[in-house]
Write a structure and sequence with these properties.
The structure is a single chain. The chain has 176 residues and is an alpha/beta fold. It has one domain: Rossmann fold. The protein has seven helices and five strands, in the order H-H-E-H-E-E-H-E-H-E-H-H. The protein has a five-stranded parallel β-sheet. Helix 1 crosses helix 6, helix 2 packs across helix 6 and helix 3 packs parallel to helix 6.
Length: 176
């Protein structure tokens, strides 16, 4: 197969996967982000990279976002939301973060492919990305789908917030 053929196969997988998202779950996630005092975002590996991209856009929207594990991340507490992106929902460090967040009175939302995972049982909201069947290695489909879901969620948040693209651009990094 050519690179173009693989690209078409990946796009078809993403189209199928994202076409089966639960719109109500996605809307509830967006509402929780807007209602949160602060949003803390966590993930490991490539799922972590996708959620870091969401953290950046949440900040661009004018909301307060922190990436778990960064040295400037403050303590989580009541009124905060921990959003975890984890395909399998069993990563020990993410489960520990969810337990800590709940013990401090924060809500936990999970984006996952496995809604029956231990992380899901600790979460107030679970958004399932149906990414089980894939011709790609490891968790690539989930990681790609979560990035696209997060970009769509940003558009949903933008439509419902007081931000616009100009305001978002004014918050873009300028020390690069």
């Amino acid at each position: 197969m050519s690179v173009g053929d693989y690209t078409k196969r990946i796009i078809a997988e993403l189209d199928h996967c994202l076409g089966h998202l639960d719109e109500a779950e996605c809307g509830r996630l967006g509402e929780r982000i807007l209602a949160a005092r602060r949003v803390f975002l966590a993930g490991a590996g490539r799922s972590g990279l996708a959620v870091r991209a969401l953290a950046m856009r949440i900040m661009h929207l004018g909301l307060t976002a922190h990436v778990v594990g960064e040295v400037t991340t403050p303590a989580i507490g009541i009124g905060d939301l921990l959003l975890v992106n984890s395909r399998g929902g069993e990563t020990p460090s993410l489960a520990a973060a969810a337990r800590q967040a709940r013990s401090r009175g924060a809500e936990v939302a999970l984006v996952t492919a496995i809604p029956g995972s231990s992380l899901a049982s600790q979460s107030d909201l679970v958004v399932r990305i149906p990414a089980a069947e894939s011709g790609q290695p490891l968790g690539s489909l989930f990681e790609q789908a979560s990035l696209l879901l997060f970009d769509a969620l940003v558009l949903w948040l933008l439509e419902r917030s007081s931000a616009d693209e100009g305001a978002m651009a004014s918050r873009h990094a300028n020390l690069e």
